[in-house]
Write a structure and sequence with these properties.
CATH superfamily of the domain at 3-135: NADH:ubiquinone oxidoreductase Nqo5 subunit
Number of strands: 9
Number of helices: 3
Order of helices and strands: HEEHEEEEHEEE
Strand order of the largest sheet: 1-2-5-4-3
Strand content: 25-35%
Radius of gyration: 24 Å
CATH topology of the domain at 3-135: Beta Polymerase, domain 2
Helix content: 10-25%
CATH architecture of the domain at 3-135: 2-Layer Sandwich
Structural class: alpha/beta
Length: 203
């Protein structure tokens, strides 16, 4: 572990008592788990403090752990060009509790937060324009949640008679499909298509 990262974590924790819940170190990066109520305060400190100067917002996203009471980890990555180091900020939330928006601290957070809302369903309080950005406005659900079905809920197609795009429930036609659930890497009980010539003797 880099001693400078440990010093940085201790500096943030000492400067903002109660804001930092825990510190972890991995891949030469410091991760701070924060009290969600202190998120904006802490990120502003990281941006402005002379020992930090994390002036660049790299990314905001989330990770879904459906088994947890607070299923989402909202993750923010910051970069300090002066000190050439990164820091990872995490806060925990559930499906109903919003996380404070960072748009007033980093204007670049706008689209990252919209994407996180769209794909995970995490709400950001104070966001100036929180609406979907990757999916359609009428889209049902949030595709990067672990409990979102792989097929989705609706399918979109263009109807030539109505001259418009229409939405229909997903229909999986399985009547003419046969599943054997055998792994091709472990070998199958039949000849796979394309392997007919493998066992043929050459003259």
């Amino acid at each position: 572990m880099d001693d400078s990262l440990k010093s940085l974590g201790d500096h943030v924790a000492a400067s903002l008592p109660g804001a930092v819940i825990s510190q972890t170190f991995a891949h030469d990066e410091l991760t701070l788990l924060l009290d969600p109520a202190r998120l904006v305060e802490t990120v502003t400190f990281l941006r402005d403090d002379p020992a930090c100067l994390f002036l660049c917002l790299i990314d905001i996203t989330a990770v879904d752990y459906p088994g947890r009471e607070k299923r989402f980890e909202v993750v923010t990555h910051l970069l300090s060009p002066k000190y050439i180091r990164r820091i990872r900020i995490k806060v925990l939330t559930d499906e109903r509790t919003p996380v404070a928006s960072l748009v007033d601290v980093y204007p670049a957070a706008n689209w990252f937060e919209r994407e996180t809302y769209d794909l995970f369903g995490v709400y950001f309080s104070g966001h100036p324009d929180l609406r979907r950005i990757m999916t359609d406005y009428g889209f049902d659900g949030h595709p990067l949640r672990k409990d979102f079905p792989m097929t989705g809920y609706v399918e979109v197609r263009y109807d030539d008679e109505q001259k418009r795009v229409i939405y229909e429930p997903v229909k999986l036609n399985q009547a003419y499909r046969s599943f054997d659930f055998l792994s091709p890497w472990e070998g199958s009980d039949y000849v796979l298509p394309g392997d007919e010539k493998a066992g043929a003797k050459t003259p």
